[in-house]
Amino acid sequence: MTQAIESTASQEAVMQRLVEGLEALKAKDLEKAEAIFAEVVEMAPGLGAGHNNLGMTILQRTQDLEKAGQLFSEAIAKDPRLYDAYLNLGSVLMSQGRMDEARDTWMKATQLQPARPEAFHNLGIHFSTHSQYAQAKSMFERSLQLDPSNTDEYLRLAMVYSELSEYYPALANFLQVLVRNPGHFESRLAVAEIYRRMGRYPTALYELQQLHEIFPEDVGLLVRAGLIFVETNQIPEALAVFSRALELDPEHRDVLEVLAVIHEGQGENDKALELYQRLALLDPDSEFCREAIERLQPLISQ
To answer: What CATH number does the domain located at 1-114 have?
Structure first.
């Protein structure tokens, strides 16, 4: 709080009302909090914290981005070193689609408080959303250096490394998530996918099998395992897995297509044709299905 509080209101009275407003905000009594913070702004118009807290309350109560953004800007004008106001203004700007301004605002926040992780986290989200993964990696790394207990940040960083095809760092961060939350489905699935991309198929299948035992009716797990069997030319195993997937979801388009292709490749044209026809009912505009049906029908009628 670097701004002087006006002489018309004692510092003690303003601080007391600020505390009461924060207590109301914590209790989710937003109307009361808004009234108190509005009073603080009147009592001490030069106090940036009053404008910032009023903006936060209005944003939560009415989602009025324009008004909240104006209050956050005023808070920064009153106190250019008010870190939280930069965080809040950046979030409003992002919600308004003003991405470059949001980025620049959070960059200023990192300069003000380089030992706090929130702005680095927000920048990581911004860069990853715009597929700027190298920049996102740098931001998430810094965020984790400042807050190593943030499990979700390990997950975000792992996903960024995956996008960059940096598989070993991706694995390390997914495994950090699993150390903290052994049942985290998304991370276990991602680990299996990374092993598949690295060509470590037995390990990928092991990870998928472990998940399958927990989620035996998850069609997505069966599809992933089936595709590994296809990639490694283990056709009987692929047929068994995809057939089970089709039992669980008879209208799964990817499963129908892969099974049709496998059966056609095996010379089982009648089974392939049936599957292509079922797929065509689900996707009547599919040129792929039309060509396959036209190709197979003469062979079966012979």
So the answer is: 1.25.40.10
